[in-house]
Design goal:
alpha/beta; Rossmann fold; Pantoate--beta-alanine Ligase, Chain: A,domain 2; 29% helix; globular; binds pantoate; Pantoate_ligase_C
């Protein structure tokens, strides 16, 4: 396809697709002629105490959803194991479990896909990590210390394997989007990184694969996150530029709703450094637990 001069867009995902992912595909279609969606639950971005084993998956459903997107996708890349980290072997999962999806022409063989850059067990594993050192420190990086090195490393591998012209990431994972942008700049990948707008349910909850684990009660209460962000935005637009006040109100609202705050930070949109007063474009980022489910959300504030 490349030799025919076709341009390629990549949408990296961990599966259990929802409308938010499908909107990334539609965004990618604006930029390139061909679309590749990768589905790979990356063990390297989960620490042993995190929810890798319960991360939802529905391979068959994912394929059907991708088929339903107008314009469609051209390939679904579902590698079996992209990275074997000897320190983290207990974290390995079989990404090929569901590969016999039963949908004709879905592009997935029953025996599992093997390409040269995918190393199978017994070859000594991998030991090279990609780190975006400053940007990965704050926000999600504080409570998830291995998360971003796992993301940056696996996205590097996906880029090298798929060789896309454009890759699309959701702004819901704001820090991830900024880290990938920086990595691509710092390491001279010839890939355009597009940030696609966050999608919300009708009540405001940001779409996430993890929402499926919320009980109906938690689901209802979790809306306090987006409500707090909206309130903060309107207060800022109304002249309240002191971030302390905006954060306190959000923390109070979410805590009263039964959530447990991981962080609530107003940061500069580029450096992701915390700011005390809004003077330039910022993004208000929140992570909070409802029961065993950790949710993240954010809102850009441009005043
Ligand atoms: O955002 C995600 O789903 C993942 O972090 C990504 C980018 C696919 C890397 O595993």
């Amino acid at each position: 396809m490349r030799s025919q001069g076709k341009t390629i867009g990549l949408v990296p995902t961990m599966g259990y697709l929802h409308q938010g992912h499908l909107s990334l595909v539609q965004e990618a279609q604006k930029y390139t002629q061909l679309i590749v969606v990768s589905i790979y639950v990356n063990p390297g971005q989960f620490s042993p105490s995190e929810d890798l084993s319960t991360y939802p998956s529905d391979f068959h459903g994912d394929i059907l959803k991708l088929k339903s997107v107008p314009g469609g996708v051209d390939a679904v890349f579902c590698p079996h194991n992209l990275y074997s980290d000897n320190d983290n072997n207990e974290n390995e999962i079989d990404n090929n479990e569901n590969s016999n999806c039963g949908v004709s022409n879905c592009g997935v063989s029953n025996s599992g896909i093997s390409v040269s850059c995918v190393e199978e067990k017994g070859f000594g594993g991998h030991e090279t990590w990609v780190r975006v050192e400053r940007l990965e420190k704050g926000l999600c990086g504080k409570s998830r210390p291995v998360f971003f090195r796992g993301v940056a490393t696996i996205v590097t591998k996906l880029f090298n394997i798929v060789e896309p012209d454009v890759a699309v990431f959701g702004k819901k994972d704001y820090q991830q989007w900024k880290i990938i942008q920086r990595m691509v700049r710092d390491l001279d990948f010839g890939i355009q990184i597009v940030g696609s707008e966050l999608l919300r349910d009708s009540d405001g909850l940001a779409l996430s694969s993890r929402n499926v684990h919320l009980s109906p009660h938690q689901r209802e209460k979790a809306v306090s996150i987006s409500k707090s962000l909206l309130k903060a935005k309107s207060m800022a637009q109304g002249g309240q530029v002191k971030c302390g006040q905006l954060k306190d109100l959000a923390i109070q609202t979410i805590t009263q709703a039964g959530g447990r705050i991981d962080y609530a930070e107003v940061v500069d949109q580029e450096s992701l450094e915390a700011v005390e007063e809004i003077k330039s474009p910022v993004v208000f980022c929140i992570a909070a637990w409802f029961g065993k489910v950790r949710l993240i959300d954010n809102m850009e504030i441009n005043i």
